[in-house]
Write a structure and sequence with these properties.
- It is a single chain.
- With about 260 residues, the protein is of the alpha+beta class.
- It folds into two domains: about 140 residues, 3-Layer(aba) Sandwich (Rossmann fold); about 100 residues, Beta Barrel (Elongation Factor Tu (Ef-tu), domain 3), CATH 2.40.30.90.
- The longest helix is centred in the middle third of the chain and has 14 residues.
């Protein structure tokens, strides 16, 4: 997973580096469309996908606005037995909080890198890809380098529940559909007293929107907005067969307020 996009050769080069070391490797793409430089989005995607992969999987993740600086390149092993090769910038935080870790190692072993000259701007090619390949080849992850006793921790923002309702944020878009993803847990929303079919008036970026709380998109007419609990258990806002973000000109991050029923 990267924020490299697919309009250039960067992803193909990283895969070629891996294949040179382990020709029979199976490589699967999560996405290369992480919003450029968005560590928070990359962390959310990584946390969302890892439960569906088995122990022993090696995740290579490059969302690295600090490339070439003093930030560490690391390998993290989770208590689920999964390995993560990535910059130490908080990308791993949600996984660590959920799964726990066995430990972390800084990648300093030059034999686990490519070539003599390590670039200052393409560590995906020069450090992360070859290190991931050495793991896949079965080499001991501790050979990568010294122990990292403490990883950079990404500050996670969570919605706040009060007697009046919930204050949270729109944290992303469910592209390409443009539905809004929030940090409001579905369980917390349901505790506000709403039932399916109820109209809910919410504030998004300070502007009120009234829409029904329904199970799925086709529960409202085409072109109409809805509030729903998405497949990851978070409150979302959508427009049936339309793009909520474009229709209402809303782009994250923005605040969202959901009042308790009757307030």
């Amino acid at each position: 997973m990267t924020d490299f996009g697919t309009a250039n050769d960067a992803v193909a080069i990283c895969k070629a580096v891996i294949i040179q070391i382990v020709p029979d490797v199976r490589i699967m793409d999560i996405t290369h469309q992480v919003t450029p430089f968005s560590i928070e989005e990359g962390a959310r995607f990584l946390s969302g996908v890892t439960p569906y992969y088995p122990s022993g999987t090696v995740f290579l993740v490059v969302v690295d606005p600090g490339v070439g600086t003093s930030r560490k390149a690391v390998i993290v092993k989770s208590k689920k037995g999964q390995y993560f090769v990535l910059p130490d910038n908080g990308l791993i935080t949600p996984v660590v909080e959920r799964d726990g870790i066995v430990g972390a190692r800084e990648i300093t072993n030059r034999s686990w890198m490519i070539g003599e000259g390590i670039s200052s701007t393409f560590h995906g090619r020069d450090i992360f890809s070859p290190a991931a390949a050495h793991l896949v080849a079965g080499e001991d992850w501790k050979l990568a380098g010294p122990d990292v006793p403490e990883l950079v921790h990404l500050k996670t923002v969570q919605a706040t529940v009060t007697d009046n309702g919930i204050s949270g944020d729109v944290i992303g878009l469910d592209d390409p559909f443009g539905s809004l993803i929030t940090d409001v847990r579905g369980e917390d929303f349901k505790n506000l007293g709403y039932e399916l079919g109820d109209k809910v008036t919410v504030k998004i970026a300070g502007k009120p929107y009234t829409m029904p709380y329904v199970k799925t998109f086709m529960d409202v007419p085409v072109g109409q907005p809805l509030l729903y609990v998405d497949s990851r258990g978070r409150v979302g806002f959508a427009v049936n067969e339309r793009n909520f973000s474009k229709v209402y000109d809303v782009d994250p991050p923005v605040a969202v307020i959901i009042p308790r029923k009757g307030k």
